[in-house]
Amino acid sequence: MRKNGYSLLEILITIFIVSLILSASYFTYISIFKEMKEESESVELQMEKIVGLELLRLDLEHAGYGIGKPLNVTDDYLIIESIADDHLIIRSTLNNTDNTTIGWVLCSNNEGEPPIESELEAPNENFVFVDSEGFIYGTVNNGLCPSNSVLVGFPYSPDATGCDGFCSEIEYYLSDSNLPAHCSQGTYNLLRKVNSAIGGNPILSCVADLKFTIDLDTDDDGVVDVIGMPIDNSIAPNDLRMQLKRINVYILMQEGGFNPDYNFTKYRSDTRGNYIEINGIKLYLPDTPNFRNYRWKAIKISVKPMAIIE
Questions:
Q1: Average pLDDT of 284-299?
Q2: How many helices (H) and strands (E) does the chain have?
Q3: 91 forms bridges with which residues in the sheet?
Q4: For residue 162, which phi and psi values (nearest 5 degrees)?
Q5: Cβ neighbours for 280, distance < 8 A, ≥ 6 positions apart
Q6: What is the pLDDT of residues 119-142, one digit of tens each?
Q7: Residue 93, helix vs strand vs coil
Q8: pTM as predicted
Q9: I want to staple 106 with a disulfide (CB 3.0 to 4.6 A). Which of 55, 117, 159, 205 is the partner?
C-alpha cells in the first residue's frame, strides 16, 4: 500500500515539465510581442506615410496657384525652385495647412466694393488680383475690389515671403534632427517649412533619399517631350510656367523597425553605394552596416499642377 505524498523523483519530474511549459510560453510570448511591436511600428509608419504624402501631393498640385503673370516677363516668378537635389521650394498663394488662403473671389464693375462672388474657406481680406488674360493687376488688404475690371482674386497669407509678398514659399527638405528612435541610422525626417517659420514640421520620418524631377512640353504640342529633367533652375520662369506638365517625387523610406532576422536584398550597388532604382532614378540606402535589417520601399509621386496661370 502506497503512503500519501509524492516521491522526490516525481516532484523533480513535475518541476521539469512545468519549466518546459513555462519556457515555451515565454518564448512564444516574446515572439508574439516582437511581431506585434514590428507590426505596430509598420502601421505607424504607414499612417504617417499616407498623411504626409497626401499633403506633399496637394502642395505640388497647387504649385503656381494664384500666381499671375507680371507685365514684364523678366520679373516673372519661379513657381518651383530647387536649392539642392533634396530641397524643393513650391510657390503658391494657397497653403494647404492654412484655410484662410483657400478659395477665390470675383470682381466685376464694382470698384471699392466687396466682390460680387466669393468662395472662401475662411475670412481673409488679403487678395492678389489677376485679370482675364492672366496678368497680375495688384493686391489689396481691405478685401475690396480695386477696379471696375473683371478680376479674380486669390487670398494669400500676410506672412507670405514669395512673389514680392503675396505667395507662400513651401519648402521640402531633409533633416537628421529629432529623428525617431525606430529609424535607421543614416535616414532623415522630411520637413515642410512655410515662409519664414523657424524650422519645419516633419511629414515623413525614416527617409533615406529624396529626388525631384519635372516633365515638360517644350514645343507646345500638348505632348510631353522632356521626361525626368532635374529641377536645376535652368529654365526661365515664364518658360517653366508654360511648359511644366508634371512634377515627380521619388522617395526611399524605411518600412517597419529593426529586425535582426530580416535580410533586405532588393538593391544594387555602384561606386557611390547601395541603391534602389525606379524609372532610372537611383535612390541610395544608408551607408550603415545594418541597413539590411530594415525593410525599404521606393515611392514615386507624379503630380500634374492643376492651376498654373498661363
A1: 95
A2: 2, 16
A3: 169
A4: -105, 165
A5: 228
A6: 999 999 999 999 999 999 999 999
A7: coil
A8: 0.83
A9: 117
